Amino acid sequence: MKNLGKRRLVAVGRLIPLTVITLLVVGLSAGEDFLRPAPADPTESETAQARLSARSQELAEQARILDRTASGTFSGLAEILGTQAAALAIPGTAPATATPSGTASSAPTPSAGPFLDDAVRSVHDLLDRAAVEPDPGLARLYASAALGRLNALTPVSAGRPTAALTAQSLTPAPSVPQSGCVTGVAASAPSGSPTPGAGTPGTTAAGQPMSDAAADATRALLRTAGRAEYLYQVALPRQDTAGQRRSATSLGAVGNITRDGLAWLASACRPDGLAAPGYSLPPSFLSSPGPALGAAEAELTGAGLDLVASAGPGERVWALRVVLGSAVRAKEWGAGLSGSDALPGLPVPPATAPVPTPSSSR
To answer: How many CB atoms sit inside 10 A of residue 264's CB?
Structure first.
């Protein structure tokens, strides 16, 4: 009996350290979980990005469904919307799907009219978000996606004035300041709604600072607009009546860009930089100016996107209008934009994630 009691005491003595160690391990694990910070709530910018990506994916799926009965009419739009959904997704996440895998084939076919209206509204949503997005890279991405979506919608919009409608849809409307710190701006008021104010060095008339990057991007835009103005002036007397009418309208629009850009710089007491000493003409320009005019407008679109990524809120809205207008004029002259069809004006990455195809979404 004594030996049995001793053996039990020894066994209990051996269990006590093991029990203590187990309790310590469990306690430390629980404490680690308790002390580990909870996942941060998504920021307002991330929430907006996820919403725009999910909406793009939903529209892509609807376009694929429509395309099954439309003989390929919506295939290009569906591909662009899918590419944009992937590009807009937050890094490390996949774009949300509107319907579970395998159910797309049984989903009801949407009506083309309401679908196109929704797609046009999604362009407005991208532009509105670009106007207020605090991340400059995302602002440029949204502007590029809006432009690519607008271009894809135009051939299938059934006569809807998508370009004009979108160009006038930005809120708030840009208000180009009058010069409060004169640095060479003409006395005539710039186009847009004037906002008088006494500019102070480095700030706009609205009291918002203009960064060095924004000032440099504005000057680059002005140089690009200056060359486009010169090309239009040379082309005008050499064109037929229809070409002269188009060039005169475009020249006025580009002239307004120059005037407004100078007003933004002057209101921030920023020098406008040196004008180009001269411009060269392509060899075939005098006989066929259209391609060079389109290329100049495409270059102006790219400069506008650069400004979107650099400008403060007020000037950014104006830059978005520049992007839309110059892109429309480039297309009228038959010129394409750099980058991809889905994201014009942005560099094409060397490798992109695969975009879901209609067969993989059914």
So the answer is: 30
